Amino acid sequence: MASQTVTLDVRNPRTGQADHTISVSSRDEVAAKAARLRENQRVWEAMGVAERCGIMARWLGEVKKSAMAIGEADAVDTGGCHTSYIQGFITMGNIGGWLEDAPKAFADLEWQGMSSSMPTVEVESQVVAYPVTGVISPWNAPLMLALLDAIPALFAGSAVLLKPSEVTPRVIEALFETVRAVPELAAVFDYVTGPGDVGQAVIAQSDTICFTGSVPTGRKVAVACAERLIPCNLELGGKDPCIVTASADLERAATAVLRGAVYATGQVCYSIERVYVQEEVHDEFVALLAEKAQEVRLNSDNPRAGHIGPFTFAPQAEIVQRHIADAVAKGATVVTGGEVEDIAGGLYLRPTVLTGVTHEMEIMQDETFGPCIPVMSYGDEEEAIRLANDTHFGLTASVIAGSAEEAKAIGKRINAGGIFLQDTFLTFAKLRTFGSDSFGWSGYGAPRIGPESLRRFLRRKSLLTQTGPVADIRNDHHLGEGK
Ligand code: NDP
Hints:
By secondary structure, the protein is of the alpha/beta class. The chain folds into two domains: 7-236 and 438-464, Aldehyde Dehydrogenase, Chain A, domain 1, CATH 3.40.605.10; 240-430, Aldehyde Dehydrogenase, Chain A, domain 2, CATH 3.40.309. It is 39% helix and 21% strand. It is built from 14 helices and 22 strands. The strands form six sheets. The chain has a seven-stranded mixed sheet with strand order 12-15-16-11-10-18-19, with helices on both faces. It is globular and about 80 Å long. It starts with 6 loop residues before the first strand and ends in a 17-residue tail after the last strand. 47% of the residues are buried. NADPH dihydro-nicotinamide-adenine-dinucleotide phosphate is lined by residues 136-140, 145, 163, 165-167, 195-196, 199-200, 212-214, 217, 220-221, 235-238, 269, 367, 369, 395, 442-443.
């Protein structure tokens, strides 16, 4: 009996209506796609990085032609405004950056010379790609977070099987229009659709996994990879703090904190989710922040206008509202915002500033993933650092102080991978420059950005040649056996 295609309806975050459908890939379909990729990967890897760069450059040309269509699809998927329309251009920057960096990354991994521990042995390196890299990506920034891993994996010589979130599939469909225009790339880059068990099917067929998503799902992915004894790179959540000292320029601090907390409706892994302000400037800072927060406009009238869009994933609005309610029940004050609004079916929250918060509240402990800015006052520097480090997470942190030196001294004591000083949201400055590791529950594996991130998709072999006489076991002497 022929198996029936299972489909899933996809909600539009601006209307609340299901206006799109995806078919759920069966385990057999996932296995068949992986087998095709595995077969084609041998040619892809054998052609070498220079030839792959030529093919990726052609893909860059296709993405350029479709950059606006990709942005439109992202806007429908996520409800984003300017955050969506730049996605095609970010993809171009990602491919273009690796066109320059990938050949050098390979050259840096090559080594040939005589062994220092056995001087008659010549050592030569060989790097080989993992044949199939599985990429499992989330619904926030669905294109960028899929491609941050997929693009370097392809440059490395891996084939890539992508499983995007079922919540935001449209932008991946638009992207694959460009992939299909480059047949050599389409031979080694494919995607499957559906919910979490399709992600598990991808793990079952892959040789290494890159996962971006929540902590609970990350644990399941790590366990499944451990059972198969394949490596996994996890990019998980955050509860990122920002410290504002009494010496800071408060105008600058409030502007930077607002953007860092509400950009893309706060649905960013490195959003600021906790703010600690020195007590003598707390009230002045909150007044400035609230004033600026009230000037942030929703994009409900026009997706291309406004500053923030609706929640991409409707259940996230419930989590955010629950965090606010829990904080208020435990004594917090909502200074501005605070209520999720249903506007023509889209669920929106205006920037929400809260004061009087404590670490007993969910909003200071668990990832909120919404445009909320809980502000807490602190006494001295020691207390600020203790509060910032009082978390399971460690993705990024920000410090805004009277001088860069003062900010850096505090930043060096915070347990997080990226420390932003005198501003927020500086993650993009690390691209192509220098990667960093996640602390705690925010993930593990080698850095996903920076030149070394290509290494995640490569295994290094050593070819060891004996150029001198071989050892004769009959002449081996054991310690203590001296003549
Ligand atoms: P989820 O963990 O819910 O999902 C991530 C992906 O995993 C989706 O494609 C999902 O499919 C899939 N999935 C679900 N269950 C399983 C399973 N059992 N096995 C394999 N795959 C599965 O994350 P969200 O989509 O909700 O994304 C938001 C989270 O991502 C936040 O916690 C955020 O902080 C984090 N994130 C981390 C970043 C980082 O770089 N550190 C960057 C951005 C986001 P489906 O959606 O179809 O169910």
